Amino acid sequence: MRTPRFIAFVCTAAVAASLTACSGATRPQQGTGAGADYTVSPTSPAAKGPLSSFTWSLYAEPYTLDYALAYDYPPNTVLANVCEQLLRVTPDLRIEPGLAVKWARPDPRTLVYTLRSGVRFHDGAVMTADDVVASLKRQMDPATASPWGSAFKTVESIEKTGPLEVTIRLGKADALFHELLAASPGTVVSAASLAKEGKDYGTPKGKLNCTGPYALEKWAQGDSITLKKHTGYWDEKLAPKSESVRFTFIEDAAARANAFLSGTVDGGYMVPSSSFDRLRTSGKGSLLFGPNTAAADLAVTNFKGALGDVRVRRALSMALDRKNIVKAAAGGVGVPAKAPAARGAWALVPEKTAAFYDTLPEPVHDVVAAKKLVEEAGATGRPVTIATSSMAPEISVVAHAVQAAGRQIGLDVRLKPVSPDAYGNIFVDPAARDGLDLVITNGYDNTPDPLEFYQYLRTEDFGNYGNWSDAEYDLAFDRANTEYDPAKRAELTAEVQKIALRELPSIPVYEAPYSVFLGKRITGAPTGISQLYYPWAATIGAAQS
Fold this sequence. Notes:
By secondary structure, this protein is of the alpha+beta class. The chain has helices at 73-79, 129-140, 175-180, 191-197, 253-262, 276-280, 310-319, 322-329, 353-358, 367-376, 393-408, 420-425, 450-455, 471-481, 486-503; strands at residues 51-58, 84-85, 87-89, 95-97, 100-107, 110-115, 155-162, 165-170, 187-188, 214-220, 224-229, 242-249, 267-269, 285-290, 295-300, 335-336, 383-389, 412-418, 438-443, 506-511, 514-519, 522-523, 541-542. It is built from 15 helices and 23 strands.
């Protein structure tokens, strides 16, 4: 969640990738901080040898290891190494074959996936089309209550049409559905294990049976999660270099930095920006930055209060001093966000990024004009409640900055402290949003298509936290999502972005690259947001031969 002062990146080729050229996430950008220059690269230096084990830090314990319910960084960081999808997002933000070796679209409403042969689950059973059908259909079942259910909204049927072939029929053209099969919606698990584990599936009591390079060995609730090497893994180029991986949960940012410096843990993603300076100069390892599709936004969760008036939303946006927020919240390693979806999200057709993102105006900072808008809306003195949490220093910094900005323009902005675990629930449980008007989100794309972010603002989408509804927006989104040509879809997505900027159901704040710390004994990790679905732990090995 950080952006360097200067980002430099050289394109690399991806085997069987369906996308080309540098992604928007990796194009040069200039930050606002006062620190040194940084380089964004999709990977760290390659490993030089094997390891018996390494320890990885998560900022919170996963609330689930059920792929259908995993909707946040901690669970997906673990699951990326255990379970796999039909498609795969690579470290340089491209889409390539995964458990599906190829696919075809015989007509706009039909997708046919040919599965990879000889893939074995952790228990040794061979993956079949039956497993794929069961895995995908489970996310459509209302009883599962999957946050990914809306991804299947256009799906009419998922059928086995051969031992290693699955055919999906759609009610209407849906460009994003195929791409999302590189994320949680495309996850394949053992159908037999789903039936056997029942309600225990994905909990500390249950077991996981997937195809990834690591298998779940133990989940000691409140302490750690341990993975062990899957010796029968199908992808030789991603054969694990470490025999096991142990995840620990450290919520306090300072304690997490101390664990990095002491060597108690070997590494971790999403490094607290408050620790950047200490880690850079410690000599205990490397602080690295990778491609990101995320932006820190203020998601409006209540349109019945003061923020229901678009003038108040615009006023709050104008009151934000984004450059100072970047310095305080991201250690200066960032840039003010121009739109709810980050520049890095424009990775599908990168040649369009300059026209559709870079040409957007810089966000306005005008307290006087903002105060006038609040007065015109009759909102002076009205309360606005924003969640804050110790989960990450950035959240607290942004929350206090919003409070100060809001009070400058006449709004009564109140902070509601939320525990780290409860903060995560805000994004999966509507009841957890009761009493809140704003929540600080790290809105990211799971795939390299900016339209994916904007789907979460559609009427009744699971990610539409405030139940915002705009008929013009929905129509513009549908036009874009029925266009299969990536370049044409980018043009239509720019129209969707224009409405989002005008109405501000989500207020952009800043964007930054992904961050990772690697202790001196390890290397080889992908550095970017692809780690949420790419088997990143498999490439980590010894830094010295």
